[in-house]
C-alpha cells in the first residue's frame, strides 16, 4: 500500500491499553478469509471471476526445513479460442492485493478484449494475501516465489509464462531464477527488486519497516486511508479498487504479511537479475512515484539479458489497471 498521507501508525495506541479497550476491540476485529471471499467477489468489476468461480487445490512445499501441505486458491479462465502451442499465463498480484486485481485483465473491458482470448490464464492467490488459506510466516520474497512455483506444479503446468505486479513482480523474477526449466518468460509490472534510493522510500513504507507497532496497523484500516494511499498512483482510482484494498487490509494475517515483506524489501538478490535467461518484458508506468522508471525500470532493462522495456504514459504504479 503506497503513499498514506499521515503517520497513522503513531495513533495505534488508541486501539488498546485504556479502560475502554473492550468496546474498542469490538470494532477492531479482523475480517475472516471467508467473508473476504464473499465481499471481494461482490465488487462489480470482479463479477466475471465470481460467476466463473474460484478453484482450490492442495500443494506441497518446503518451508522452515520441513515439508508443508497447504490448500491454495486460484482462478482458471479457459481460452475462448485456444491457439495451438500457446502456453498458459500465470498472473501474480502484488502486496497487499488479491487475485481479483486481475479481473479486468483476464476478462476485458469495453476497450480491451482480455487475456483469455487464445490461451488459458491462471490468477493465483499468494499465501499471506487476499483469501489465501494457510500460514508461512514470517514472510519474505523467496517464500512467496516458492509458493507461486508450488501452485504451478500442483496445477500440472509443464511450462508457462509468469506476469507479476509490484511485489508480485519480484515473486515472479525470483521464481524464474528458481525454476528456469518451467518458467518460459516473465512480465514485470513496476516490480521491486533493486535497492531503493533513500528519497524513493515513502513515509508509510518507512513506518512499516521501522515502527514496532506496525503489525497492528490493520486496526486503523479505513476506506479514507486507502483512498489517500491509492490516489497518488492513479489520479482517479478505478471503480472497486478502494473497496478491494480496504477488504484485503482488514484481515490481520494479510496485514502482517505486508509488514514482513516491506521489511524484506532490500534488493538482496538484485545481483542475480542478470542471470535470468528467459525473455522478459518490463512494463512500467511513466508516473510511478514509488519506483521511478528512469531508475528502476531502466535497471531491469539494462540487466536482463533478454529484457525489453515498455513505459506507458499517463499511468502510475499500476499500469495494467
Summarize this structure briefly.
The protein is built from 11 helices and 8 strands. It has 321 residues and is α/β, with parallel strands linked by helices.
In DSSP terms (H or I, runs of 4 or more residues), the helix count works out at 11
Q: Report the β-strand fraction as a percent range.
A: 15-25%
List unreliable stretches of 5+ residues. Answer: 1-26
Helical residues, percent = 25-40%
* CATH architecture verdict: 3-Layer(aba) Sandwich
How many domains? The number is 1
In whole angstroms, how far apart are the ends?
A: 15 Å
Mean pLDDT: 91
Structural class based on helices, strands and sheet pairing: alpha/beta
Q: What is the name of the CATH class?
A: Alpha Beta
Q: How many E strands?
A: 8
Major beta sheet summary? 8 strands, mixed
Give an overview in words.
The chain is an alpha/beta fold. It has a single domain (8-312), classed as Rossmann fold. The chain starts with 20 loop residues before the first helix and ends in a 9-residue tail after the last strand. The chain is globular. The chain contains eleven helices and eight strands.
Name its key features.
321 residues, alpha/beta, Rossmann fold, eight-stranded mixed sheet, 8 strands, disordered N terminus
Element layout with pairings:
Layout: H1 21-26, H2 33-41, H3 47-52, E1 55-63, E2 66-77, E3 89-92, H4 103-107, E4 121-124, H5 141-154, E5 160-165, H6 167-178, E6 183-189, H7 203-210, H8 223-234, H9 241-249, H10 252-264, E7 280-285, H11 296-303, E8 307-312
Parallel strand pairs: 3-4, 3-5, 5-6, 6-7, 7-8
Antiparallel strand pairs: 1-2, 2-4
Helix pairs in contact: 5-6, 7-10, 8-9
Amino acid at each position: 500500500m503506497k503513499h498514506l498521507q499521515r503517520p497513522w501508525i503513531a495513533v495505534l495506541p488508541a486501539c488498546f491499553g485504556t479502560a475502554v479497550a473492550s468496546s474498542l476491540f469490538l470494532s477492531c476485529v479482523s475480517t475472516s478469509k471467508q467473508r473476504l471471499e464473499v465481499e471481494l467477489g461482490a465488487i462489480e468489476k470482479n463479477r466475471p471471476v465470481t460467476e466463473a468461480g474460484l478453484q482450490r487445490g492442495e500443494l506441497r512445499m518446503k518451508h522452515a526445513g520441513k515439508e508443508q501441505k497447504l490448500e491454495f486458491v486460484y482462478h482458471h479462465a479457459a481460452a475462448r479460442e485456444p491457439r495451438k502451442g500457446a502456453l498458459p499465463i500465470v498472473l501474480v498480484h502484488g502486496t497487499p492485493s488479491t487475485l481479483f486485481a486481475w479481473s479486468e485483465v483476464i476478462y476485458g473491458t469495453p476497450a480491451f478484449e482480455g487475456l483469455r482470448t487464445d490461451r488459458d490464464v491462471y490468477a493465483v492467490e499468494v499465501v499471506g494475501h487476499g483469501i489465501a488459506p494457510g500460514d508461512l510466516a514470517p514472510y519474505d520474497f523467496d517464500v512467496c516465489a516458492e509458493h507461486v512455483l508450488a501452485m504451478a506444479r500442483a496445477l500440472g503446468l509443464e511450462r508457462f509464462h509468469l506476469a507479476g505486479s509490484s511485489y508480485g513482480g519480484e515473486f515472479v523474477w525470483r521464481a524464474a531464477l528458481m525454476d528456469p526449466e518451467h518458467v518460459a518468460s516473465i512480465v514485470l509490472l513496476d516490480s521491486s527488486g533493486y535497492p531503493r534510493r533513500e528519497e524513493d522510500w515513502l513515509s508509510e513504507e518507512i513506518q512499516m519497516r521501522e515502527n514496532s507497532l506496525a503489525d497492528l496497523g490493520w486496526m486503523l484500516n479505513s476506506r479514507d486511508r486507502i483512498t489517500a494511499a491509492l490516489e497518488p498512483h492513479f489520479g482517479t482510482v478505478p471503480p472497486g479498487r478502494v473497496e478491494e484494498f480496504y477488504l484485503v487490509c482488514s484481515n490481520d494475517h494479510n496485514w502482517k504479511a505486508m509488514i514482513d515483506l516491506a521489511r524484506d524489501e532490500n534488493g538482496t538478490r538484485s545481483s542475480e537479475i542478470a542471470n535470468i535467461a528467459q525473455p522478459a518484458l518490463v512494463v512500467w508506468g511513466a508516473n510511478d512515484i514509488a519506483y521511478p522508471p528512469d531508475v528502476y525500470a531502466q535497471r531491469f532493462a539494462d540487466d536482463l539479458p533478454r529484457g525489453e522495456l515498455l513505459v506507458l504514459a499517463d499511468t502510475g504504479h499500476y499500469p495494467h489497471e
